[in-house]
Design brief:
The complex is a heterodimer of chains A (about 110) and B (about 110). Chain A has strands at about 5, 10-15, 20-25, 30-40, 40-50, 55, 65, 75-80, 85-95, 105, 110. In chain A, a hairpin with a 6-residue loop joins strand 5 and strand 6 (about 55). In chain A, strands 2, 4, 5, 6, 9, 10 and 11 form a seven-stranded mixed beta sheet that branches. A four-stranded antiparallel beta sheet of chain A has the order 1-3-8-7, with no helix packed on it. Chain A is mainly β. The radius of gyration of chain A is 13 Å and the shape is globular. With about 110 residues, chain B is an all-beta fold. In chain B, the strands form two sheets. In chain B, strands 2, 4, 5, 9, 10 and 11 form a six-stranded mixed beta sheet that branches. In chain B, strands 1-3-8-7-6 form a five-stranded antiparallel beta sheet, with no helix packed on it. In chain B, a hairpin with a 6-residue loop joins strand 9 and strand 10. The radius of gyration of chain B is 13 Å and the shape is globular. Chain B starts with a strand and ends with a strand. Classes of the chains: A mainly beta (about 110), B mainly beta (about 110). At the A-B interface, strand 5 of A face strand 5 of B.
């Protein structure tokens, strides 16, 4: 079982360009999440989805959008990247939207120049 | 003030030592508490949940003190493989599964 996969592993992006970070899980989990991790700030929630067809904003949603067309996929889109979006992005999933264990993907290291 | 605060360390300890980390949280409405472990350049993984009565898993013991709003993690007989960053995680009441992370405490276990 793959669990959660993310793509790409890393990316260098020019400011102003758009990009979609991909996340796929094969555990049939209902809830999925996107976090960013920055030195000294810890992991912060960007967006989440408690079930397919629904999404919600986390702590730092500005500049990002998500969609949840099906259970398995939860892509994160940067419409016009800025250098402050340089970070490590982790996708996660959990069985429900309650206080369950979250399983994290391996992360995408994004650099915006 | 940060919602979840941890001493960043690093804590450098010899193999076999006992080491303890504390974590304080600011919101008294926090309902669920966890310790996650993160190895360098890897994803976080759940180490253990923290229950009101305290709980133990092998060499690891977690405790919660609601009155003082802190949780702790005790590692006995440290192994080299315990070297990692330990993340304190809190869920607020009514917060669903929205995790609030501390910035982590780095542990280095040395020979």
């Amino acid at each position: 079982t793959a669990g959660i996969t993310q793509a790409p592993t890393s990316q260098i992006l020019a400011a102003g360009r758009s990009m979609t970070l991909r996340c796929t899980q094969d555990m049939r989990h209902n809830a999925m999440y996107w976090y960013r991790q920055d030195l000294g700030l810890g992991l912060r929630l960007i967006h989440y989805s408690n079930t397919a067809g629904t999404t919600g904003k986390g702590e730092v949603p500005d500049g990002y959008s998500v969609s949840r067309a099906n259970t398995d996929d939860f892509p994160l889109t940067l419409a016009s990247a800025v250098p402050s979006q340089t970070s490590v992005y982790f996708c996660a999933s959990s069985d429900s939207g309650g206080p369950d264990t979250q399983y994290f993907g391996p992360g995408t290291r994004l650099t915006v120049l | 003030r940060k919602e979840v605060e941890q001493d960043p360390g690093p804590f450098n300890v010899p193999e076999g030592a006992t080491v303890a980390f504390n974590c304080t949280y600011s919101n008294s409405a926090s309902q669920s508490f966890f310790w996650y472990r993160q190895d360098c350049r890897k994803e976080p993984k759940l180490l253990m949940s923290v229950y009101s009565s305290g709980n133990e898993d092998g060499r690891f013991t977690a405790q919660l003190n609601r009155a003082s709003q802190y949780i702790s993690l005790l590692i006995r007989d440290s192994k080299l493989s315990d070297s990692a960053t330990y993340l304190c995680v809190v869920i607020l009441t009514g917060g669903g599964n929205k995790l609030t992370f501390g910035t982590g405490t780095q542990l280095k276990v040395e020979l």
